[in-house]
Specification:
The chain is α/β, with parallel strands linked by helices and 504 residues long. It folds into three domains: 291 residues, Ribonuclease Z/Hydroxyacylglutathione hydrolase-like (Metallo-beta-lactamase, Chain A, 4-Layer Sandwich); 113 residues, SCP2 sterol-binding domain (Nonspecific Lipid-transfer Protein, Chain A); 64 residues, 3-layer Sandwich (Rieske Iron-sulfur Protein). Helix content is 24%, strand content 24%. The strands form six sheets. A seven-stranded mixed sheet has the order 8-9-10-11-12-13-15, covered by helices on one side. It has a six-stranded mixed sheet with strand order 1-2-3-5-6-7, with helices on one face. α3 links the parallel β6 and β7. The longest helix has 26 residues. It starts with a strand and ends in a 19-residue tail after the last strand. The structure holds FE2/S2 (inorganic) cluster. The site of FE2/S2 (inorganic) cluster has 9 residues, from loops. The site of FE2/S2 (inorganic) cluster (FES) has 9 residues, from loops.
Length: 504
């Protein structure tokens, strides 16, 4: 007998033949006290903390999956299934917390949990560190992909139940400064991408049933209330996309669960507390202490020397990533502004009327900047908090800058990004008369699933597009693709691509 209980967001308790597996339990505010589980799952906290588990699985280090306050209350007797990431960050953090029994699993590596129970980890094999878990329980196959993007060609098939993200978990585009029309267009494009990716995952895994999970969160700090607008952001409710999903996957059963529901007995439609008027306002009051924590204490002071020191260190740690790179970044923090020269201008930080010409501007509240400078949060967490506002000119995604900020404190990830750019493994795909690099230069998607039509190659994940003749990036970003006619001798190197790219 297998029972799968949804704890809300990406959290589950799975029971099978006496085994109990706890997955990604999230209960406390994340990302500078900005994100809260939605719907509220706090009533489940005592029984989750008091429960007995044979295995714990934490998919990655994002705070809506790695809830340190919750994990700190669990028995350290549990065995943890740990995805084997290059950075070792997840493994070390769990070890520091006293979780000494760890089973490290690389991409598609399995571990037997019981006589008829096997767990297999699926990684995002790019520089990103994220994972999903396949549980084969007496032949019943539950695939929890949460918000992980394993290359489409590497996904398992024959899935009975798929749990995966349908709503966004990213600051683009809603944290950027765009005019309303532009924002609406970009938001619609991201939402369409999210649904398209979900439909592909469902089809490729052959999922018989789908459980919407891993978002959206909600924002209880009144300063962030605009991000609860499900129509105007990339954070829709399932009901906002259910019709489109049903049209695309009419044969797939949707299992809509509230926190605490089991998969075989979900709540009746319309019975959710969230359907009641004033739900969010009442939730905000219940958690006032928690979201107000961000605002407590005097406004912090920020000095130019420490901003300079921070970026100096970040750049020293990531020299290969910044090889040949130059970008100006302007940081604005409540009246103060710094121009940071990155790359060849390394270590140069000027106050206020800086001569650095910024391609990116980030407005960051001093409290958030203080948390980053003190190492209490990384730029990734600060950006996810939606407390920062970004602007870029030209309006082009800069993978190097964003990777420096997001992963720079873990250079294992940026080194992998450099390898990906150089065409790690030199794997290629041959199709439609073309031979092109197999893994997407943006985030490593397998381009064996790319659309190739009318002289354009399009990645199935975020839909970057390249000229099939020159490899020039036509939309999405600036990174080129190595491509040549398939008739070329395989021993010959692929053409060096054109290095220019247009506005996204
Ligand atoms: S992985 Fe993002 S466009 Fe290919």
């Amino acid at each position: 007998m297998t029972v799968i209980r949804h704890l809300g967001h990406a959290g589950f308790v799975v029971e099978h033949a006496g085994l109990r597996i706890l997955i990604d339990p999230w209960f406390h505010p994340a990302f500078l006290d900005a994100w809260f589980p939605y719907p509220d799952n706090r009533p489940l906290l005592p029984e989750v903390v008091g429960g007995r588990y044979d295995y714990l699985y934490v998919s990655h280090t994002h705070e809506d999956h790695f809830d340190e306050r919750l994990l700190g209350q669990l028995s350290r007797e549990v065995t943890v299934l740990v995805p084997r990431y290059r950075s070792q960050s997840l493994r070390r953090r769990l070890a520091r917390m006293g979780f000494g029994q760890q089973v490290l699993l690389g991409h598609r590596e399995s571990h037997r949990l019981g006589p008829d129970a096997v767990a297999t980890v699926y990684l995002d094999t790019s520089h990103k560190e994220d994972s999903g878990l396949l549980l084969d329980l007496g032949g019943y196959r539950f695939l929890d992909l949460n918000d992980c993007n394993t290359p489409l060609s590497e996904l398992p098939s024959g899935i009975d139940l798929l749990a995966a993200q349908y709503s966004g978990a990213m600051w683009y585009p809603n944290a950027y400064r765009y005019p309303p029309g532009e924002m609406a267009r970009k938001t619609a494009a991201v939402r369409a991408d999210l649904l398209d990716t979900l439909v592909r995952k469902v089809r490729l895994t052959g999922a018989r049933a789908y459980l919407p999970s891993a978002g959206p969160a909600c924002f209880l700090d009144p300063e962030l209330d605009r991000f609860n607008d499900r129509a105007a952001t990339i954070f829709p409710h399932w009901e906002d996309v259910a019709g489109e999903f049903a049209a695309a996957c009419p044969e797939v059963e949707v299992v809509r669960t509230a926190p605490g529901d089991t998969v075989d007995a979900p709540s009746a439609p319309g019975s959710w507390a969230t359907d009641q008027p004033g739900y969010l306002a009442a939730y905000r009051e219940r958690r006032r202490d928690e979201w107000e924590a961000y605002h407590r204490g005097p406004e912090p002071e920020i000095g130019t020397a420490e901003v300079a020191g921070h970026f100096d260190r970040l750049q020293r740690l990531n020299r290969p990533l910044l090889d040949g790179y130059r970008q100006g970044l302007r940081l604005e923090a409540d009246g103060a502004a710094w121009g940071v020269g990155l790359g060849e201008l390394a270590e140069r930080v000027e106050l206020e009327d800086e001569p650095v010409d910024p391609g990116y501007t980030i407005r960051v509240p001093p409290r958030a900047l203080r948390a980053v400078l003190d190492g209490r949060a990384g730029w990734e967490e600060a950006l996810l908090s939606m407390r920062l506002t970004l602007h870029r000119d030209p309006d082009v995604f800069d993978l190097t800058l964003l990777s420096l900020l997001r992963y720079g404190h873990q250079p294992a990830q940026t080194r992998q990004l450099v390898r990906e750019r150089k065409g790690a493994g030199d794997a290629v795909v041959e199709r439609d008369g073309l031979r092109f690099q197999r893994y997407c230069p943006h985030a490593g998607e397998d381009l064996a699933h790319a659309e190739v039509a009318d002289g354009v190659i399009e990645c199935p994940r975020h839909h970057w597009r390249w000229d099939a003749r020159t490899g020039r990036c036509l939309s999405g970003g600036t990174l080129p693709l190595r491509v040549e006619p398939a008739a070329a001798t395989p021993d010959e190197p692929l053409l060096e691509p054109t290095l220019e790219g247009p506005v996204r």
